[in-house]
Each structure stands twice: as structure tokens, then as C-alpha cells.
Design a protein that fits this description.
Layout lengths: L27 E3 L5 H13 L3 E3 L4 H7 L4 E2 L12 H13 L1 E2 L7 H13 L2
């Protein structure tokens, strides 16, 4: 997609993104695994880059593909700075010990949601 830079992988290393000068002024969409670690990473990213918006990290996405979730073996705790929609999904995931990896979400569905989110940036 023209004008879009995607950063993939390395999870918790997201806190290093603010070292890239131009990114501090850029719109940032974050899509991580729907598990407690994904929300922890989002929280850490947002603490350094507060303009970060999540995509596909809500109860809608979880509800749509819940049957693809597995048990999360070790949960992250102390997650802060989430929106109300993110917090609702986080609570649901935490209570159910769920993990829905982003790779399990059908790409055509995800791309549609991502395109819609990019249109509002």
C-alpha cells in the first residue's frame, strides 16, 4: 500500500520504534496477537508513541474468530493505557486465558479492516 510502512515481529522490541525520528510524527496502527502479551506490547508502544491506535484488537475480532483461539500458556499482567474497547477485549482474554494469534485471522478479512482503518488516518 502506498505510503504505508509495516513493521513485523520482534514483539516487545516495539519500544525501540521511537528511536526512528520520523515515526514520532506518523500515524501508527498496531495489530498484534489477541492475547495478554499482544495488549502488553500495545501498551508499551503507546507509552512511547501515544498516537498509536489498535486494529483488530477488540471484542469484535475476538468474537468473530474465537473458535480459532487456544489457551495462552503464560499471561502478561500490569497492562495499562488501553481504550475501553481494548480493555473489554483484554478482560475477556485474560479471564478465558485465550490466545488468538493474528496469523489465524483470515487475511482477506484482516485486510478489509486494515484498509478501513487506514482510510481514517
Amino acid at each position: 500500500m502506498p505510503g504505508v510502512v509495516a513493521v513485523h515481529g520482534r514483539g516487545y522490541a516495539v519500544v525501540q520504534l521511537d528511536r526512528v525520528g520520523w515515526i514520532r510524527g506518523a500515524a501508527i496502527l498496531y495489530w498484534g496477537d489477541l492475547d495478554t502479551h499482544g495488549f502488553n506490547i500495545l501498551s508499551r508502544c503507546r507509552s512511547r508513541l501515544p498516537q498509536t491506535r489498535s486494529v483488530l484488537m477488540d471484542s469484535v475480532a475476538l468474537g468473530e474468530f474465537r473458535e480459532l483461539a487456544v489457551i495462552e500458556p503464560a499471561q502478561a499482567h500490569g497492562v495499562t493505557g488501553l481504550t475501553s474497547a481494548e480493555s473489554a477485549a483484554y478482560r475477556e482474554i485474560e479471564q478465558g486465558r485465550l490466545r488468538l494469534e493474528q496469523e489465524r485471522i483470515p487475511m482477506d478479512w484482516a485486510v478489509g479492516v486494515l484498509r478501513s482503518a487506514l482510510a481514517t488516518v
